[in-house]
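notes to self, project folder thing:

trying the whole complex as one job this time. last attempt i did each chain seperately and stitching them together was a nightmare. two parts in total, labels are on each line so i dont mix them up again. if this works i'll redo the older ones the same way
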Amino acid sequence: MGPYFADDAASLVSDALVGVARAHADLLTLQAEHGYLRARHPAPARRVAVVSGGGAGHEPLHTGFVGTGMLDAACPGRVFASPHNRQIYEASLAVAGSAGVLHVVKNYTGDRINFGIAAERLAHRGVPCARVLVDDDLATESADIAAGRRGTGGTVLIEKILGAAADTGMGLDELAALGTTLTASCRTLAVASAAHTAPTTGAPAFAVPEGAVEYGVGIHGERADHAIQVAGIGSLVEQMTHELLYALAPPAGAQMIVLVNGLGAVTQLELYGIFDALARHLEARGCEVARNLVGNYVTALDMRGFSLTLLVVDDPQTLRYYDAPVRTAVLHW
Amino acid sequence: MTSTSFGATFTSDWMRRFAASVTATEDELTRLDQQVGDGDFGVNLSVGVQAALRRLPDKPGPQDEAAAPLEAAASAFLDEIGGTSGPLFGLLLQSLATAAAEAGPALTTPALAAGAASGLAAIQRVGEAAVGDRTLVDALAPVADALRTVPAATPPDRALLTAADAAWQGARDTVRIKARLGRSSYLGDRATGIPDPGAVGVSLLFASGVTVVPTLAPHLQEAGH
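result (full assembly):
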């Protein structure tokens, strides 16, 4: 056995896919030949299928969000590696609605290229396809980073809201525009006190100084560009909240959907404490926590870290979409 | 020469010559990519052409449509190669197939020009690469430019010769470019002096329209024709 409870790094993903399909057989099916999960019962009014995917290792993203009211299909790659264009193309062809397919893509070069190739193939087949590029990671906002901000925790909120909008029968261009608007109002910041265990070596992917956190880690085990010493959880959360609010510049009294997300090895006990600190800082700054999610939603294998995501609600309809019924392995209300 | 001379037999032979060229030069491609990339380009391209050979129609008749072998090769490259540069070749082949299908049963020079142009556009949309970024675009853009100026009545095999010349020149020119994208972008000046393997692969594709390329060296030396 390797460092994880699986025979090797490759079977970690393939075994899990079969297990997800077995555990949630009422919600989804596994298309084994092409390697994607597909929702069993999409809403009848849905005209545009919503398809996402990306490297494995971020579970429950995206497999846990396949079902009614959210994703029609998810295409997992190997750990931290983009899915192949064939998976995305086949999944999109299989689930495409009468008005086409919307791809929700986290901003990573490999994902952009493979979803892009799949989109070209779909166009060749006459299937309308549009893309929402999620790039919510504040830590990678820099003129020096040509690839742009990474896509991280905000993806869950955006997939939920877009899924509900798609269930109303919304068209492709309108959905893509909504996704772009949501992404513009959403930022995430992540920290870690310990790296994930590399599946191949069993060693931590990087070292973090004692008493410090890597400030601005990615979800593929990318370390941050700097580490900071942590005086206390309250001040750490305050600094992160301050930077997120500075970037988002919400209007006074803004409503927010917040996600306090564990990166894999942080306990729910800790996450609720972090959420309380976040909510207090937001309220002190005149913001309202309209909705919240607290848990492990977008992970980086077993990284000991967490991320904070703020999505500023610009339109009351956003909350109605967020509240709309959803039935997936992880989100269900 | 009747137009049916450039039906499925011609495009099928073209794809088989491309496979032979890639097989003959795989080691040279690997050595190039080991210097500027992650070294898997030769193998990836080889996997692609082997998959294409399996998918090509056995014995196309002279009346069969030119698009079919190109479409078969395209889906092989798109479906069966990992990484990104192999599938990008698939997009180029798919564009050539679409243009050929629109032109009719036989391949024409305007169809080649249209396919190269739309393939270039698709690759640029997906890869977000411009001319001068030291990618396969640096060979394909000159091909599209050259084919645009070839008279429509020119037989497509002659047009492919012109395209190949333009591609080799473009590939040779990449030796002077510092990479902005892709793996070579991490190497800075160390990549200069070596042609971009993707651009060399594009040259192999168009050169194989007329003949099997047994070795890269003569084409990569300056002076050309």
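what i see at first glance: The radius of gyration of chain B is 16 Å.
need to look closer tmrw
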